[in-house]
Amino acid sequence: MTIEFMKGNEVIGAAAIKAGCRYFFGYPITPQSELPEYMARELPKVGGVFLQAESEIAAINMVYGASGAGARVMTSSSSPGISLKMEGISYIAGAELPCLIVNIVRGGPGLGGIQPAQSDYFQAVKGGGHGDYRLVVLAPNSIQELSDLVMEGFDIADQYRNPVMILGDGMLGQMMEAVEFREPKKRNLPPKNWATSLNNTSSKKIINSLYIQPKDLENHNLRLHKKYEEIKKNETKYEKLETDDAEIILTAYGTTSRIVSNAIRSLRKEGIKAGIIRPITLWPFPYKAYEEAADRTKAFLTVEMSMGQMIEDVKLGVNGKKPVYFCGRTGGMIPDSSDIVEKAKKILGGEIQ
Predict the structure, then answer these.
(1) Residue 194 pairs with which residues in a beta bridge?
(2) pLDDT tens digit sequence for 202-239
(3) Sign of CA dihedral 258, 259, 262, 267
(4) How far is it, in rounded angstroms, from Cα 39 to Cα 25?
(5) Which of 176, 226, 267, 276 is the most buried (most CB within 10 A)?
(6) One-character DSSP codes across 174-235
(7) Rounded CA separation 29/178 (Å)
């Protein structure tokens, strides 16, 4: 394996191609435009197809068609573009089609700005589209983890016949770091005998998410729910550091977690016992990690590049055992390590109730 120095958006494309993705349908929007540019250049070299659709709505429905034919396929966008894809994402989830969706988040609401943000958390993990569906949502915090999770994301999608989202931000898309393209752990992936490809000629194949009879739709939703429970059991991922003796546990995801890690080191140097829980899967969310930590620590501090969206899930995990506080910036502003340190000190000093 060789180590390369690459930009995040381009690493997504390279990892996807190495994972067997051969179809990309998308539309340019800052700060993820280097990804479709990379795919436009590199996919034809491996016999793949890049197509810039006429809109984000068209792109997600092309993903539906390619996935329905059994292909490994992906799309990408940034915040308002993902909003336009939401109807199609719900259709894909309802039809149980595997695909990878990348959201390199920018500030909002509305057109907002082009700077990094994490304000699409609700949209990603609570279901921005209609109906009782779930996306598996992966939140890498480095270029290496971005590569690893893109490759694993395709396998997760195929294993459960479910769309997977990579939720990054403008920093992750634009930064450059060393990366080694490693093979994901081997999974026993089921055959795509449901697909409408020419190889499946033994019986008629129908890809659909329409159920006219209420009881049929209820049964479909109950079956989906059972699948989601299996995903919760098997795919929940998180990282924790210095939590065993921590008086205060900070929590963050994505690139914000790197800022929080710096804050924890500063607090520890000052004799303040601080730790971090970093969710890697935002859905399924690692509620149990917070429940267990709540028995040992005094307080939690959630740090986000938003007005506070993940804090709701942290509170659900803590389940009222300990107070949960918030520190964040929004609109494309990035939290500062020193501000996080001061907030933690004030919480432990009783200055914030």
Answers:
(1) none
(2) 677 889 999 999 999 999 999 999 999 999 999 999 99
(3) negative
(4) 9
(5) 267
(6) H-EEEEE-PPPPP--PPP-TTS-STT--SS---------SHHHHHHHHHHHHHHHHHHHHHH
(7) 25
- Give one word for 32, left, alpha or beta, with left for phi > 0 and alpha for psi -120 to 50: alpha
Its sign, for the CA torsion 162, 231, 166, 314, is: positive
Give the closest residue to 93 by CA, choosing from 3, 160, 163.
Answer: 163
Q: Which amino acid is at 225?
A: H
End-to-end CA distance of the chain: 51
Residue type, 163: P
Residue 74 sits at φ, ψ, to 5 deg, of -145, 165
| pTM score | 0.96
Which residues are bridge partners to 285 per DSSP? none
For residue 231, give the amino acid letter. Answer: I
What are the tens digits of pLDDT across the range 9-53? 999 999 999 999 999 999 999 999 999 999 999 999 999 999 999
Give CA–CA dist 279/350, Å, rounded: 27
Q: Could you tell me the domains of the chain? A: 3-235 (3.40.50.970), 240-348 (3.40.50.920)
* Token digits of residue 341: 């340190």
What are the structure tokens assigned to 80, written together? 């308002």
Q: Would you say 308 and 252 are in contact if contact means Cβ atoms under 8 Å apart?
A: no
* Per-residue CA distances from 163 to 99, 115, 175, 296 (Å): 5, 26, 26, 36
pLDDT given for residue 202 in this prediction = 62
